[in-house]
Write a structure and sequence with these properties.
Structural class: mainly beta
CATH class of the largest domain: Alpha Beta
Order of helices and strands: EEEHEEEEEEH
Number of strands: 9
Number of domains: 2
Largest sheet: 5 strands, antiparallel
CATH architecture of the largest domain: Roll
Helix content: under 10%
Radius of gyration: 19 Å
Strand content: 35-45%
Distance between the termini: 29 Å
């Protein structure tokens, strides 16, 4: 069976950045399952997996526009410390959810300078070309419920 729309596929992977450093990888014996065509993984990787079968191995180099997008400097903003009510010690690396006109946006603190806090709403991998080493481990038909819900069910789904 080939990976196609509304098929569940699982794969082992190692993700590296442009510098060759490992960013993420699947744990041994724990491949990543996803519902093909449901937007569960980045578009560039999903396109590379289309038509693959169990046992196929590939190297997929994904440009930012088909991964997590380009960095948007408008997503980097300076806000007053008073915007973080109830949090006394603000530190670089802390994550929050900010409210925007487009809804909630996850942000990370990138600088603390007195009463001015710099936050970045870009995805941490935005602007990066990503390389995936992938091995397809399973391909199966998706259940009706998985298709309706738009993701793989693993026994812990409670809609």
């Amino acid at each position: 069976m080939q990976i196609a729309q509304n098929v569940v596929a699982s794969f082992d992977y190692v993700l590296t950045g442009a510098d060759g450093e490992v960013i993420d990888k699947s744990e041994p014996g724990q491949p990543l399952p996803y519902l093909h065509g449901a937007g569960n993984i980045i578009p560039g990787l999903e396109a590379e997996l289309e038509g693959k079968t169990v046992g196929d191995e590939l190297t997929a180099v994904i440009e930012p526009k088909l991964a997590y997008g380009e960095r948007n400097e408008q997503m980097v903003q300076q806000v007053p410390k008073a915007a973080f009510q109830g949090v006394e010690d603000l530190e670089v690396g802390m994550r929050f959810t900010a409210e925007s006109n487009a809804g909630p946006v996850p942000v990370v603190i990138t600088a603390v300078e007195g009463d001015t806090i710099t936050v970045d709403g870009n995805h941490p991998l935005a602007g990066q070309t990503l390389t995936f080493q992938v091995k397809v481990t399973e391909v199966r038909e998706a259940s009706k419920e998985e298709i309706e819900h738009g993701h793989v069910h693993n026994g812990s789904c409670d809609h």
